[in-house]
Amino acid sequence: MSARAVTRAGLGALAIVGAHRLYLAGHWQWTRLSVKRIEPKLEFDPDFQFSTIGNPVFLSRPDAEATVIYLDGFRIQPAAEMHRDWFDELHAAGINVIAPVLGIASAPLELRNRDWSYLDDARQAVQLLDVVRTVAGPDHRIIVVAFSWSSALAVGLAVRRQVDGVVLISPILPPMITPGDTTRFGEWAAPRWWAPSLVPHVTRRKVRGGGWDIADPEHRRRSNTTVWNNRELRLTQVHQVYRAAEWMRDRTGPKLRDQQLAIFAGDSDRHVVPGVQAKFAEMLRRNGNDVDFRMLEGCGHCLLMDHRQAEVKSAIRDMALGRARTPVPVVAG
C-alpha cells in the first residue's frame, strides 16, 4: 500500500470518528432540549445537588427493635417525596426507616447523565448496612426492601452480610423484554453494549411507560401529575441495570441460603418478561430460602403506587415486626 493510500485511509478514519462525535454531541443537545421542555422546573441544593424533594430519609427512635432500609429504583425521584407518609407510619409503629440516595438519583440532568456502574451503588449500600448493624447491634432486626433494579443490591447484601429479611418489589431480571420486540427500545437495547453508540439517549413520551409504570388508571394519573420522574434514559446506564440483573440471577442469587424473603411482582409489569420473577423465586426456594412470592393481578411495575400497594406495605411491616405470615406457594410462569 502506497503512502498516499495510507494517508487517505487515515484521514477517512478520522473523518468517521469526527462525524460520530459530532453526532453524539448533537444527540445530547437534542436530548437536553427535549427534557427541558418536558421536565417541570426543579430546584436543587446549591452544594450537594440533591433535588429539594429528593433528599435521603432517616427516621430513628431509641426504642425501635427493627430498621427498614429502603433502596429505590433506577434514577427515579427518591423515596422522600413518594413514600414519606408510609415511612412515617412505619416509624410510628416502632420501626426505624433509612432511605438513602445512591449513585445518580435525585440529581440535575447533567449530573445524572454521567458514567455510572451498578457497583457504585452496591459499594455505598454495603457500607450503609455495616454502619446500621454496628450501631444497632446483632439483635436488632434489619429488613432490606428494594424496588426494581435495586433488588440486585438487596440480594448482594443478604449474601455478604447479616440481614433478617429481604423484600424484593418488582425485581428486574433478564430478559427485560421479549426477544425481537423493539417497541420499547430502552429495554431492547439493554443487553446490547453497542447500542449506546448508535442511540445514546432515549426520551420517554408522556404515556404509561413515560412516567410511572402503574396499571391502575386512577393511581397512574395521580402519580404522574404529582411526582416527577426524569424523562430521559441514558442507554449506557440501562446496560448497567441489565448487568446488575445478571449479577443477581447468575452470581449472588444462587449463593443465597437460609434467608427469609418476600417477592412481589405485577402481572402487567412492562419491564420484565412474564414468568422470570416466579422462576427466580422458585430457584431461591430450592436453595433453602423461605420465600413468599406473590403475583399481584392488575398491577404494573411500580407496586408501591398501584392499587394493591397496601398488601405490599403490610407485608413489609409484618416482616419488620417479626410477625408470622402464611406461606404462599411459588408458581413458575
UniProtKB/TrEMBL annotation:
InterPro entries: AB_hydrolase_1, AB_hydrolase_fold
Record domain AB hydrolase-1: where: 87-312
Pfam families: Abhydrolase_6
Domain of life: Bacteria
Entry keyword Hydrolase: yes
UniProt keyword Hydrolase, yes or no: yes
GO molecular function: hydrolase activity
Coiled-coil parts of chain: none
Record's keyword terms, sorted: Hydrolase
Name listed for the protein in its UniProt record: Alpha/beta hydrolase
Organism: Svornostia abyssi
Source organism phylogeny: Bacteria, Bacillati, Actinomycetota, Thermoleophilia, Solirubrobacterales
